[in-house]
User: Fold this.
Amino acid sequence: MRTERNLTRLDRVFARLDREPERPAHIDVPRMSRHRVALFAATLAVYGAIVWAVVSTSWLVRLDWQVMFFRPYEQWSEIHAFVDYYVVLGQRGPTAVMIAAWLGWRSWRQHTLRPLLALATSLLLLNVTVGAAKIGMGRLGPHYATTIGANEMWLGGDIFPSGHTANAVVTWGILAYLASTPRARRWLSALSAVTSLGVGLSTVYLGTHWLSDVLLGWVAGLLILLALPWFEPLIARTEAAIFDLRDRRRDRRAGTVPARPTPVQVPVRHKPRESAQDVSPTACTPKAPVYLAPGPHSARSERTPVTPVGSRRPPHTDRGTRGTASTARPVT
Assistant:
């Protein structure tokens, strides 16, 4: 009697991975709907409100100083070692490598470059927007503050908004953005929210960022995720161009397509030579030009040259022959 082994969960996972994948044409690409546009506009308004609250040295700046004087890293010093490792989840290099490795494997399995291109687009937007805001506002961090109660703006700093927080929102949120099922999107959204929230609070705990820096970092990362559907057509065109280039390179290496287009040459077929005995006189007769009238025509070499006789001038009765004396004209 044949018995079948009970498959464990790990066996089912590997069995799923061993299946031949197909390009996920059924996955809906996020569109910029009215709801998403309204959410983007509201988030942008919050971004502007936070910047204005810091620039005007409002209650938010006073809260920043109160948290800084509280010194969380001294109040809960027992978790300092854990926070030092946890904050790495918001650093650009390690998180980009981890997420890119996962999305690269997924791209290879699903025969699409959209996950990697979406990650590259989001990181490029993150560097441009957050980097420009950091340099433009130039806020100093808590460890380098010069005046108590001041907003420390335009002093050459680069911490506003928090890059760790914005990077955590984007790199972990891109997993939820690229999820193929609604259930996976909900779980990944919760995971990215918890991770980015912990990274932001970790920077406040370590004293490297103000609380307002973290708030603006959360909003900045969310703006990038909300704006990604606007770049989906560009991602699709880039993917098509890369696949087209790959196919041309493969065909060129295989020799099916020439490297450069060459003009097609039609081979000229030469008739076999005939002996002199087989050549008939009529075979050497040239064909009549198209502009001649139909009918038999003789060749120019066969025509008898006709030499005109006499003078070509019209005859004159009043003139004599050349060489004879001319008659005198009557005098009237």
Observations:
- Confidence is low (pLDDT under 50) at residues 288-293, 323-332.
- The CA atoms of residues 29 and 232 lie 8 Å apart.
